[in-house]
Amino acid sequence: MYRTALLRPGVAPTLDGSLPAQAEPPSGKDSAPDRVMQTAELHPLPAEDHGPEPSPGSRPLTGRLSRAHRAAGASFLLAFALGFVHLRLAAIPLAIFVVLCLAAPSFPGWSFFLPILSAGPRSRGAVTLTFDDGPDPLTTLPLLDLLARYGVKAAFFVVGERAEAHPCLIREILARGHEIGNHSHSHDLFLMLRRSATLHREVSACQETLSRQGVRSLVFRPPLGMTNSRLPGVLHRFGLVAVGFACRPLDFGNRRVKGLGHRVLRTVERGDVVLLHDCPPRGGVAPWLREIDTILGGLRERGVGIVPLSALLGRRVMEKGEPERQAE
Ligand SMILES: [Zn+2]
Fold this sequence. Notes:
- It contains eleven helices and ten strands.
- By secondary structure, the chain is an alpha/beta fold.
- Zinc ion (ZN) is lined by residues 132-133, 183, 187, 223.
């Protein structure tokens, strides 16, 4: 049932096969909604294991027009109106819309093509750490040990190919209570320039790999955080929502490790989803671990909690089942 549910397009059932319940409608208006780019209600946690309450002011991620749709509508209306003044003027709003479409893939924070969850409420007083591009035999286990010393649960946005190659690391991540998200199957840096079928295959293959290892991810982070107009449809088919980041220390996939800890501590704000990487660092594993240690220690000193992604966003980010087979 688990895998059948995973592969059924457009449906995001829970592990027992039932459809997810609808969450409470939005209410209240605290919790710094400016930083909650979007929170969602597609897979609310049951009351008993929900952890934090869903963010007040949260709205469904589907069933409403994207910013791209609204920008298109506004551009065409404006062009139509300006056309009565002078035909050349009508080209201005259309040109602006085209520029927006070209620039938007590089600015996921705009949530232009689809809602992207990049932060939780500041009022929660906590952040979450996310590690992309793993798992990796060099880095994942020492990282897990370090996180355990601080009692911190993180989220790992894994690459399908690497998850397939190292299922024992996926099991270890799960066994230690961390969360796992889909980061595409092959981490194609130009994925957002590919056809819809390729995009679909990349998301699907990673979901399948994780499914075999007993995980159904409910969140997707695109390589480089880039999006396009085809992504919303693909994610909807798999019941996934896009997760971005609010704090990006520009480590360039662990190629720029020196000073990483201070860059995070200088810029991080309460409520942030912090982007880090779980892949072989330039300069060796030990210096990189010291930087992560600086982040963990620095946040603790400031009294900033580090909570799981699901707790920060107030929504479930994965479902666990039984691994289909044991490997490695
Ligand atoms: Zn990545």
